[in-house]
Amino acid sequence: MATDIALLPSHLADQIAAGEVVERPASVVKELLENALDSGATQIEITIEEGGEKLIRVVDNGRGIRSEQLLLAVSRHATSKIQTVEDLAAVTSLGFRGEALASIASVSRFTLISQYFDETHAWQIRGEGEGAWQEPKPVAHPKGTLVEVKDLFFNTPARKKFLKSARAEFMQIDQLVKRAMLSRFDVGFKLVHNQKVVRQVQISDTEAATRLRLQQLLGESFVDQSLALTFDAQDIRLTGWAAQATFNRSQTDMQFLFVNGRIVRDRQLSYAVKQAYADVLYHGRHPAYCLFLEIPPALVDVNVHPAKYEVRFANGRWVYDFLRRSVREAVTQPLGRMPSATNIDSPDEVPKNQPDHFQAAMQFQQQSPETVEPIPSVESLFGHELSDPQRLAEPSQTYPVGKDQKTEDGGAPPLGYAKAQIKGVFILAENDAGLVLVDMHAAHERIVYERLKQQWYQDRLICQPLLVPMVVPLTASEISIWQMHQPEFEKLGFEAESFGPEQLKLTTVPSLLVKSNVVQLFHDMLADFAVMGRSQRVEEHLNALLSTMACHGSVRANRQLTLAEMNALLRDMEATDSSAQCNHGRPTWIQLSMGQLDSLFMRGQ
Fold first, then answer.
1. Which terminus, N or C, of the chain has the lesser number of Cβ atoms within 10 Å?
2. Is 353:330 a contact under the CB 8 Å cutoff?
3. Of 179, 177, 158, whose CA–CA distance to 169 is shortest?
4. How does residue 334 score in pLDDT terms, banded at 50, 70 and 90?
5. Quick one: what percent of the chain has pLDDT higher than 70?
6. How far is the C-alpha of 119 from the C-alpha of 197, rounded, in Å?
7. DSSP states of 320-370
């Protein structure tokens, strides 16, 4: 073992640095893609051979690199993207560390060709991984840059043996390019593997082109069942698409979140979106979304990790709450106020707080008074089945009906008008699109549940002092967490006081949770605060209890309803948050269009 201190040879230092930046072929593609996007490119082509081990080539039409700066570009700590400490505090580019090209070149046979936008021809340099570079020479190449990486890790066999199969490595590259395609609709991309075009998307500057790109990357089902959203608050903006809860996944493979154009893997942000879907998503399923957060760069620290997947916010809790509330408002809007799931707009064309806009419903409710008659709320019809104090009747609403409730005039509400009931379980209704089939118990269960929640949170956490306080054993670190977050615990209905060196005495808890395992819940809340800085445990437990109450308080199957009762249920569904799913995440209604009905009977074939 060497005992004398000495400077590392430059090529060895580059290889060590490459260990942080270049883990696998996908890491190389990521760095080169970011450079291409930062250069202002509008067209990028990525060519891969044998999963990237044999060849990675990225060609762009960006502004290029000046001929006299080519050798500087492949030096460590050389970058055009930051110059001062102030620049580092407000990074606006994807790449900025100035290590990528040098690190990649140190473990490959590397070629860089570039023509700067105001120069007459291109220049080329080459290296073989030992820090020695050929002198730049002129070559023929269009404006922009080509980076070619051959024989990755040829000089570091210890690293090479950890690569997976070519197919597995390319799958990583494919997913990375897919994310890039989702991040920049203003850029065209082409991905080629072993001489075969795998993905290709054009610049998407119209609504139709945006929809087409989403279909190519996420599938037509996602597009048809997603809500375009735009929310603004102070200096933060959220745009993108969030799938309705009825479109869900077994894995988290369709969750894309970008912060200032950068794909991030942030546990708290992912948890915020997950909480937005709380009690509308079926157990064990995951939401799908493609969301874009725009935040002033000075409020985001992207200099957390060399791979730049992680970010840190100046006010993480506020960002978390904004994201959770915005997505929840979008995916839980009543049917009468939410946009049609088949109308996917581009982010630039979505109005602020777009889920509040549903023009057809607004026009429908503004028709002349002589065409309307009162329809009672569902609780005035079923209220006798709800035991006190859960009587939740609301003022009657008025809806146009017209003679025989026909819909030819296009004036039907979203769920249409009831026509019949099947086996005391399903309601058949007709709307402008065709046939609506409703599970009446599931639908009424959601209505009662949402109104129980509203009633509970308006009264806001009725608390109950304990006649016999509960003693909770805690570690010293848990005591510290409780002391730090004591105001939050009290706001959630838990009051406690010290009881010995490593014990607390619970004196007050939320009244609905008295019969729950309060001690375990308290420990879980402490764990949440330790990891996330917040806890949703109380809300989750309360919602579970209210859901059970709603299930017992809703109209039962095999109950025969009149047309007035069926229409009352439909109208209340349209006015209730999250009514497209029951409390367990199952759908409460489905739409069959005239085209679907025709195909069932082979009409027109």
1. N
2. no
3. 177
4. confident
5. 75
6. 32
7. HHHHHHHHHHHHT--TTTSPPTT----GGGPPTTGGG--HHHHHHHTS-GG
Summarize pLDDT for 372-419 with one digit per residue, the tens.
Answer: 343 344 455 444 443 333 333 333 343 444 334 445 455 789 999 999
Reading phi first (left if > 0) and then psi (alpha if -120 to 50, else beta), residue 424 is in left
Number of Cβ within 10 Å of residue 14's Cβ equals 23
Of 147, 36, 96, the closest CA to residue 308 belongs to 96
Looking at residue 438, its amino acid is V
Q: Which tokens sit at 487?
A: 């105001």
- Cβ contacts of 352-356, under 8 Å, gap ≥ 24: 352/230, 352/231, 352/232, 353/230, 353/231, 353/232, 353/329, 354/228, 354/229, 354/230, 354/330, 355/227, 355/229, 355/329, 355/330
Can you tell me whether residue 18 is helix, strand or coil?
A: helix
CB 438 within 8 A of CB 573: yes
Residue 133: Cβ-neighbour burial (10 angstroms; 0-12, 13-18, 19+) = middle
CA 314 to chain centre: 21
Q: Which of 321, 357, 352 is nearest to 337 (CA)?
A: 357
**pTM score over 0.85:** no
pLDDT at position 62, please?
Answer: 93
Three-state DSSP at 508 gives strand
For the chain, what is the radius of gyration of the CA atoms? 30
Say if residues 402 and 371 touch (Cβ distance below 8 Å). Answer: yes
